[in-house]
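Regression test attached.
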Amino acid sequence: MAEKDLKALFLHQLKDTYYAENAIVKALPKLAAAAQAEELRGAFAVHLEETKNHVKRLDQIFQHLGEQPQGVECKAILGIIAEGDEVAEEFQDGEALDAGLIAAAQAVEHYEITRYGTMLAWAKQLGLPEVEGLLAETLAEEESTDELLSELAEDAINPQAA
Amino acid sequence: MAEKDLKALFLHQLKDTYYAENAIVKALPKLAAAAQAEELRGAFAVHLEETKNHVKRLDQIFQHLGEQPQGVECKAILGIIAEGDEVAEEFQDGEALDAGLIAAAQAVEHYEITRYGTMLAWAKQLGLPEVEGLLAETLAEEESTDELLSELAEDAINPQAA
């Protein structure tokens, strides 16, 4: 019978997040290509490089646990990305397109913030300090991207969209 | 041709969130029924009542905008809820079940936090102070539920799950 303890749950969440990060690596170039404002295209490009690094950190965490890196389908991120695609299509060439793209990207960020926050608490509980350190680095970058997108929206994008 | 400005985007997001809140009203009793710890069942029950109130606030916002309350399918929340169902099934009767349910609920909270945060910024931009007030009330409750779940996990649920 399969284990159903916190370590098994952690591994399940790790695979879900691995799938999600790889899906985001594919989605970000599409968001960048759709964006009208150069500053926003730049922000998406920077975050793409960070996200590739997040995948590498997850690889390291799998190694720490003696497991092969592997994803399990993450319906949440697929739904969040699909909604972003819908907004990009529906508001194409409109004044509010970039505001919609930022909202989509922030929904992605918040999904990652909750998953990394949860895994960080679990790693602490499981006594895995190296894993904790890797998760904390990525969490800090996701939070910082989310804040950057909020500032960009409030200072530049939303006023143009209104 | 359909409007593609910030007001149209706001209305689109409002309908998405209306659908999401109504989906959460249906999902929370299932989470509560699955939870093992009485404290967690209680937290889900309290949040169910809050969520019903969030739906009422959205009704009021539709009224402010002169629109009929209406949802549009929110693939993001459907994906997030489906993942919670998967974890509930996979970890049924296991030590880590409640930790998985909390993670699922926090993913829901973070989805709402990002959507209400975005709509709050847009309402500010659009000069809709009453709408802003209603959104801010709900946002504060979502953030407070998220913090409560983190405390419950770290203080009581995770140690039992490990």
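Expected vs. actual: identical. Chain A has one domain: 6-161.
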